[in-house]
């Protein structure tokens, strides 16, 4: 920790309260994303110790000045005119420099809501423990007073509902299944079906109120399971009700589900505070992996909620850069194979296959993983988004040769996807060829095999590499109309290989004339004017004169076409 950045407990508590009051949840989430993406630059603390200046990169650079004593007086040059994403990102960067919990700052609003619900005056993380101790201290005197009231003839007071909490010792010793039992006991049997973001937020705040101040690793695990508990309250009703599925879930419920899943994925992308199985919380982490595996393998394929979080767990907390190891990946693979035999036809085959592929990738058994996808990929309706985690692992590791092989073998499996769906796949090829030029022939071969689905990314690759002859051939084969392109799209061809446009334009002109209507003749005349300029640029004016005379004579009976040619100055 930088010794210039110090934040005592009281100042930290005030900062948490200020963030909870001034920032809404969406702004905090976006600020956390900006912070994680490293967009906060040139952060500095003024000599007065209460003003933080920073520059935050968005669509441009924004200057931010945060007043730690009065967040309402903070300023940003963006147009938000309120507590904005750039301020939130700056505060998270500052908190990290001070050695404080970023997750606590991200959950500040939830902590404030839970404090308000339980009547505690402070929204800090210490409130839960203080409230619990205070309640314990006051319990005997309440019992005496209630007994005295009964003796005086007053009606006996109704017994108070004791709402379950969890201590640090219990969270360390109890399996996570017992955590969820406590969650349910605290919430009760009523109103466990969550349908809106507000209900989800209220339940999360209530669950956060159960815990005291925790070590960071345990707090990470607790927060994840609180999110998972709320997610189950949404997913289970959708799976048991035949009228619902991931495709037909209520709009507000789907929004809430996406928001919770996003929070969980952000948490799993954060660095895990334990590195190996020597940690006291290692068993809880392994139970978390079991929890997500079990739900992923029995999840309805239209939901995909726990499958995404299972992948995030093994990409983040249990990835090679964190607590993962070869022995752990081999053991998880055995668990998946055992689950296949146990679940039989109820197994959710797609996430099971993708999970095995990720583990095999970590174990450098690429051929086995690709063979599994080649065998089942088309049957399982493999999508580009399913491959993204696997390809992303190799890209981050800068293993370009392996990434090339994966792209070449998995591309033909992506049947039926076009345009924007395949754009990320094309981007991976662009990165590989930039880093590994000898991969270019493999790229062309693969993209050609994927036609017509790969047409858009194939066109983009041809244009990026200046392969204008192939680009023009593709447009002519597909029957493309030159007038459907923006003028700027054809400018590079006119500059680098203008002669290639001649057959493209000539073919289109003849097609327009064959339409035998006024609109077709107007379009033909428009293209002929472009052709005239193109011949002049190529210094082939004589050839143009011969062509236009022959064209006019050949179509002399088409009076409407002749009129359009004269209007365009193509005939005298």
UniProtKB/TrEMBL annotation:
GO terms for molecular function: zinc ion binding. The keyword Zinc-finger applies. Residues 62-95 form the SWIM-type domain. It comes from the Bacteria. PROSITE patterns: ZF_SWIM (PS50966). Residues 146-160 have a biased composition (Low complexity). Residues 115-166 are annotated as: Disordered. InterPro entries: Znf_SWIM. Keywords: Metal-binding, Zinc, Zinc-finger. This is SWIM-type domain-containing protein.
């Amino acid at each position: 920790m930088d010794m210039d950045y110090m934040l005592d407990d009281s100042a930290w508590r005030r900062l948490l309260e200020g963030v909870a009051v001034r920032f809404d949840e969406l702004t905090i989430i976006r600020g956390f994303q900006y912070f994680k993406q490293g967009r906060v630059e040139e952060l500095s603390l003024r000599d007065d110790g209460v003003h933080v200046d920073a520059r935050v990169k968005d669509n441009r650079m924004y200057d931010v000045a945060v007043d730690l004593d009065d967040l309402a007086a903070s300023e940003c040059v963006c147009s938000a005119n309120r507590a904005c994403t750039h301020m939130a990102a700056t505060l998270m960067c500052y908190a990290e420099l001070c050695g404080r919990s970023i997750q606590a700052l991200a959950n500040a609003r939830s902590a404030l809501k839970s404090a308000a619900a339980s009547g505690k005056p402070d929204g800090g993380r210490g409130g839960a423990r203080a409230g619990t101790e205070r309640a314990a201290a006051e319990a005997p005197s309440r019992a005496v007073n209630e007994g005295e009231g009964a003796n005086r003839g007053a009606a006996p007071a109704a017994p108070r509902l004791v709402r379950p909490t969890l201590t640090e010792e219990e969270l360390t010793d109890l399996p996570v299944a017992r955590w969820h039992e406590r969650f349910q006991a605290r919430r009760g049997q009523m109103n466990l079906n969550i349908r809106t973001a507000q209900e989800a937020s209220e339940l999360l705040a209530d669950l956060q109120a159960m815990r005291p101040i925790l070590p960071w690793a345990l707090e990470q695990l607790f927060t994840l399971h609180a999110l998972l508990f709320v997610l189950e309250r949404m997913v289970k009703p959708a799976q048991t009700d035949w009228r619902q599925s991931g495709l037909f879930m209520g709009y507000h419920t789907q929004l809430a589900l996406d928001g919770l899943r996003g929070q969980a994925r952000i948490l799993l992308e954060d660095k895990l505070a334990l590195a190996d199985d020597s940690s006291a919380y290692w068993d809880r982490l392994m139970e978390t992996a079991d929890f997500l595996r079990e739900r992923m393998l029995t999840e309805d394929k239209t939901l995909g909620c726990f499958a995404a979080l299972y992948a995030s767990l093994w990409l983040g907390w249990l990835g090679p850069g964190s607590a993962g190891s070869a022995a752990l990946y081999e053991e998880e693979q055995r668990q998946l194979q055992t689950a296949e035999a146990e679940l039989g036809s109820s197994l959710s085959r797609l996430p099971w296959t993708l999970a095995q592929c990720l583990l095999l990738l970590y174990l450098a058994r690429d051929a086995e993983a690709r063979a599994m996808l080649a065998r089942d990929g088309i049957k399982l309706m493999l999508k580009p988004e399913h491959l993204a985690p696997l390809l992303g692992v190799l890209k981050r590791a800068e293993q370009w040769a392996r990434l090339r092989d994966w792209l070449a073998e998995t591309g033909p499996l992506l049947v039926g996807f076009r345009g924007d769906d395949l754009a990320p796949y094309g981007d991976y090829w662009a990165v590989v060829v930039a880093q590994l030029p000898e991969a270019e022939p493999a790229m062309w071969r693969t993209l050609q095999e994927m036609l017509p689905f790969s047409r858009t990314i194939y066109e983009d690759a041809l244009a990026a590499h200046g392969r204008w002859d192939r680009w023009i051939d593709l447009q002519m084969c597909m029957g493309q109309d030159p007038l459907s392109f923006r003028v700027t799209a054809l400018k590079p061809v006119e500059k680098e290989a203008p002669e290639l446009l001649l057959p493209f334009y000539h073919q289109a002109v003849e097609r327009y004339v064959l339409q035998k209507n006024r609109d077709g003749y107007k379009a033909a005349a428009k293209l002929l004017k472009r052709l005239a300029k193109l011949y002049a640029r190529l210094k082939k004016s004589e050839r143009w004169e011969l062509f236009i005379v022959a064209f006019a004579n050949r179509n002399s009976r088409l009076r409407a076409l002749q009129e359009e040619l004269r209007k365009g100055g193509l005939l005298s």
